[in-house]
Specification:
heterotrimer; A mainly alpha; B alpha+beta; C mainly alpha; A: mainly alpha; Ferritin; 10 helices; B: alpha+beta; Ubiquitin-like (UB roll); 2 helices; 18% helix
Chain lengths: 251, 96, 318
């Protein structure tokens, strides 16, 4: 492949949306209210829409007849490069919203930078996605506040979720080799520069929600290098089932 | 059932495009006005049906009672002089 | 009100419906009209949200991203349709929570077909094609039903559903034109969903209890048997077109009737499933009750937060 770094860079962006979209999609029909159910499916659909744009572009770069679905469904566990945060399970609605919020804050600031990319396709995808993700952030922030500052029960559950997921936040700002190469070319976003504003923004919302910002400085990493938590394997088993059980067919 | 905790009902009005009025398109449940707006967006504008949304909690709507429809609406029926067709014009006047 | 006055009101009421006038929530209506409507609309709403489960079952396993987004959007629409219909019900003074209670306690019914399992991907095709096909036949006439909120909800539902059946049929086309293994998946799904789809249109006219009154109120425009015949006549050629075989040895074109004759429906199976002995009745209810119960603390928190916010605002105002 001529442009291996760009290809890998795109997967680094798109895999996050794929895995998070898959997590949200599995909640369809099981939400706490019909209205919330519909809202979460909307976010899932936004994310899958983004995924398809990214993978279609990646497939074009690969230039070997692979399709968006090959990229989405026919890689091995170690070849997915999403961050660990997005693969964490739907433990309960607090976890689902905390995961969403912690990702949305990052996602929006990332897209705002990606919009300035020299790569016009990525810039265009970012431009479109910003509107979707701004809404996701609005939605998830509102739920952080509602649950954090709701009842004693919801406060505890939301605090547990934030505490439980906190360890996965730092990885958002790690750079892979592909990241560095793309930053150097003016295509990629230097995520290290987003970190400070991220934690400030998160803390502001947590404060408003009467939640404690965790102080732990020990963070998990590995997703961007393809070393995942045990949760991802099961997610992939479902995601890939049809393509694996019935290879080389059209659907 | 704990009925005091149930999310109240809201009525949703959507303007489909600028230049048109908001129209009632249905209702939904939400805990507060922000959620009502967000839910309305997610439920009623999934297919680009709107450019503006109003939500109002159903209990805040005052409605006329159909039992009073006689006194409310029928007195207007015979006031034909409010309509242009009531007035005779010579045929030569084409547009007025 | 004297009995005679009520009788008089009822006559006027029936005359209004006969003149194709719509009935609106605050209008006077016979108690039976109200009850029948709550029953039918809520049953319809319950069917939509229970109907999310068999298809939701395949969202995480859809074979391509294109299929995945289509399925997600479709199942999401069903949540929306449930919501529209519950809202229509609420105009008659019954709350969504009460309706859920009826569903969860087993007092209210929903369409039996959703008690069958979706075992392969092809079932997404069969359900969209057959189950939505049968549903549309039932629903289109309801856009003109006499109760305004129900009619308006149905207009919205039918408009949105127009892609659902296509979505399913397209899946079937792909499978039927695919590898032998894929074609087998399609045929197998048709075999399993054909008869339940016919049953979905309701018991035969001879056994249907509500029909006459429902016809008058335009809750029903055609009899179950007529709807079933219409469904069969339109579906058989669609199956033939993609080379699938309807699993009914007695099915044949009747030149004289210009319709298909078809075999005996196993009504015993139908009633057993209605009574709760279908393959998935328990799982479906468990999923619905589970979602509702697990969501309770979330709904409570949102209310508590809304109240705090309101109080803070009021304090600021003082």
């Amino acid at each position: 492949m001529k442009n291996k770094n760009l290809y890998n860079y795109i997967l680094g962006i798109a895999d996050n949306s794929l895995i998070l979209g898959q997590r949200l999609g599995s909640l369809t029909g099981h939400g706490p209210s019909l209205e919330t159910d519909i809202a979460c499916t909307n976010m899932s659909l936004d994310l899958f829409g983004q995924v398809r744009s990214y993978y279609q572009y990646a497939a074009k770069i690969a230039g070997d007849n692979r399709t968006e679905d090959d990229i989405a469904m026919l890689r091995k566990e170690r070849e997915y490069v999403n961050v660990l945060l997005v693969e964490q399970p739907n433990t309960d609605f607090a976890y689902t919203m905390a995961r969403q919020f912690l990702f949305d804050v990052y996602h929006l600031s990332f897209l705002q930078e990606l919009q300035k990319s020299k790569d016009l396709t990525l810039s265009a995808i970012a431009n479109k996605s910003i509107k979707e993700v701004s809404y996701h952030l609005r939605f998830s922030s509102d739920w952080i506040k509602r649950l954090g500052d709701g009842t004693a029960v919801s406060h505890q559950k939301m605090q547990d979720a934030i505490d439980g997921l906190w360890t996965y936040t730092d990885e958002l700002f790690h750079q892979t080799e592909a990241d560095k190469a793309m930053v150097a070319e003016g295509i990629g976003v230097d995520v290290t520069l987003l970190k400070e504003a991220y934690y400030e923004k998160v803390k502001a919302i947590l404060d408003e929600s009467t939640l404690q910002t965790p102080e732990s400085k020990w963070f998990q990493k590995g997703g961007k290098e393809g070393v995942h938590t045990e949760h991802l394997g099961y997610l992939l088993a479902e995601l890939q089932y049809m393509q694996r059980a019935y290879p080389n067919m059209e659907w | 059932m704990s009925d005091k905790k149930n999310w109240p009902l809201w009525e949703v009005f959507v303007r489909s495009k600028n230049g048109l009025e908001h129209r009632h398109c249905g209702s939904l449940h939400a805990a507060d006005e922000e959620m009502a707006l967000e839910n309305a967006r997610d439920v009623y504008t999934r297919r680009s049906e709107g450019v503006s949304i109003w939500v109002v909690e159903s209990k805040n709507i005052t409605a006329s009672n159909p039992e009073n429809n006689g006194e409310m609406f029928e007195p207007a029926h015979d006031k034909v002089y409010r309509h242009p067709t009531f007035y005779d014009l010579p045929d030569e006047v084409k547009h007025m | 009100m004297s009995e005679e006055q009520i009788k008089n009101l009822e006559t006027q009421f029936e005359a209004r419906i006969a003149r194709d006038e719509k009935i609106e929530p605050k209008d006077w209506m016979p108690e039976k009209y109200r009850k029948t409507h709550i029953r039918q609309m809520s049953q319809h709403a319950h069917s939509e949200i229970v109907g999310m489960l068999p298809e939701g079952n395949w969202i995480t396993r859809a074979p391509s991203l294109r299929r995945k987004v289509a399925l997600l959007a479709k199942v999401q629409d069903e949540a929306g349709h449930g919501l529209y219909l519950y809202s229509a019900c609420e105009t008659l003074g019954v709350s969504r929570e009460e309706l859920y209670e009826q569903l969860h306690s087993g007092k209210a019914k929903y369409s039996s077909i959703f008690n069958y399992p979706t075992v392969t991907w092809a079932d997404m095709g069969a359900v969209g094609w057959l189950v939505d096909g049968a549903a549309i036949i039932n629903q289109v006439p309801l856009c003109n039903t006499s109760y305004g909120p129900y009619a308006r909800a149905m207009v919205r539902v039918c408009k949105e559903e127009s892609f659902h059946q296509r979505q399913g049929y397209e899946i079937m086309i792909k499978l039927a034109n695919g590898t032998p293994e894929q074609k087998e998946l399609a045929q197998d799904a048709l075999n399993r969903w054909w008869w339940p789809s016919l049953m979905m249109l309701g018991p035969t006219d001879a056994e249907s209890i509500h029909t006459e009154q429902s016809m008058k109120w335009k809750l029903k425009r055609k009899s179950n048997d007529d709807l079933r015949q219409q469904f069969i006549d339109q579906t058989v050629p669609q199956a033939e077109l993609i080379g699938l075989t309807i699993p009914d040895p007695d099915l044949k074109w009747n030149e004289e009737r210009q319709s298909y004759d078809f075999g005996e429906i196993n009504w015993d199976e139908f009633w057993q499933v209605v009574k709760g002995h279908g393959p998935c009745n328990k799982e479906r209810m468990k999923a619905r009750v589970g979602a509702w119960e697990e969501g309770e603390w979330v709904r409570d928190a949102a209310m508590a937060y809304a109240e705090k916010k309101r109080n803070r605002k009021e304090k600021l105002a003082i």
